[in-house]
Write a structure and sequence with these properties.
Length: 362
């Protein structure tokens, strides 16, 4: 049977079930008949479904890309499809896809024996939670909400109304993703003094060099830093900005990359959690040095500094209003009973024990 003999409705259904936008465009290039159907009035419907299959739920993504301060964030918006809207959805969908990969690493960072890929359902859940956190950040982590009013009833009410749109299980999913974002900031974007010390010792285990923390050296980065105490590396090694970050020289002190210990570092991370997921990935990828991150946040305005995020506070407020305990939700997320990836893999040891018990029973 030739493709040209297929009914247009059947071909349209095939387009609607492709897994990605790239697959839809590739399918449209198969033959002239497929191209004709793809280029018809069904094109936006086909592309929107492809975006849904790859980066959905697009309903939550639309709330992010169409948000503006003239509309309350807790009221859902329905927007007609357009090419510009689909391009925006693909852009934030790609960001969400990157967080899918980060999640698997961060979630099981210490429990690496159980690390695994997320299922399709879990990836969908993660993206949904990420879009909702993103909307919260866009709406309530702005200069319109300075530190002086963050805890007032007038400021709390719209934030709570947004989170009231989601059930407790969905709030736990958002908290789970929020914890991954927090870990990314505290480890990769704004590492503590202790993290810098551990990473330095891991790279130079035999070194006796003493890191000096909280010393800001405002010297420009040389193209090929002269190293001290035998820390000279070839240009091939120095090409990595993340590696050179830990190489001390007469112009550079790795300890200056630390953001403080304990309490000081905690408040720095709280401030940085006001950034949206795309901004955090941008800092992680392009700003390995503390000076670069400080320059980025300085351009946001004075309201950003010493003004922590409000998501966790609002989430606890909403859970209490529902007659539940916030700490129980936090523990359930930590234990894997609630959140995006619920439960652990059935490990080989568990399988062996089950088989042993079964054999004894026989």
């Amino acid at each position: 049977m030739l493709f040209d003999d297929l009914p247009a409705e059947t071909v349209t259904q095939i387009f609607l079930h492709v897994p990605s936008v790239t697959a839809a465009t590739n399918l449209s290039a198969t033959c002239q008949y497929f191209r004709k159907i793809y280029s018809s009035s069904k094109r936006l419907v086909i592309l929107s479904q492809a975006v849904e299959n790859q980066y959905g739920p697009i309903h939550d993504a639309i709330q992010v890309v169409t948000y503006n301060s003239t509309q309350p964030a807790f009221v859902a918006r329905s927007i007609p499809l357009s090419d510009a809207l689909l391009r925006s959805l693909v852009q934030i969908g790609r960001t969400a896809a990157r967080w899918e990969k980060l999640y698997t690493f961060k979630k099981w960072k210490s429990d690496f024996e159980n690390r695994r890929l997320l299922t399709d359902t879990e990836r969908y859940t993660l993206r949904r939670a990420l879009y909702r956190i993103w909307l919260f950040s866009l709406a309530y982590h702005t200069s319109a909400f300075p530190r002086t009013i963050r805890a007032t009833p007038e400021s709390m009410r719209p934030r709570a109304l947004l989170l009231h749109n989601f059930n407790t299980g969905e709030l736990a999913e958002m908290l789970d993703v929020h914890n991954i974002i927090r870990d990314t900031i505290s480890t990769n974007v704004c590492p503590s003094n202790g993290t810098i010390r551990r990473k330095f010792q891991k790279r130079f285990p035999e070194s006796n060099y003493q890191l000096v923390f909280n010393v800001h050296l405002n010297y420009p980065q040389p193209s090929a830093p002269f190293s001290q105490d035998g820390y000279y590396h070839s240009s091939s090694n120095m090409e990595s900005k993340f590696h050179s970050k830990f190489v001390p020289s007469r112009y550079y002190e790795p300890g200056a990359e630390g953001w403080g210990d304990d309490i000081l570092h905690y408040y720095v991370v709280e401030d940085m959690l006001k950034l949206d997921p795309e901004q955090i990935l941008y800092l992680k990828d392009t700003c390995p040095y503390k000076m670069q991150v400080e320059s980025f946040t300085h351009n946001l305005g004075e309201w950003f500094t010493n003004n922590g995020e409000t998501f966790c506070q609002t989430l606890a407020h909403v859970i209490v209003q529902r007659g539940e305990e916030p700490e129980e939700i936090r523990e359930a997320v930590r234990d894997g009973a609630m959140g995006v990836a619920v439960g652990k893999l059935f490990r080989k040891q568990d399988m062996h024990e089950s088989l042993t018990i079964g054999c004894r029973a026989i």
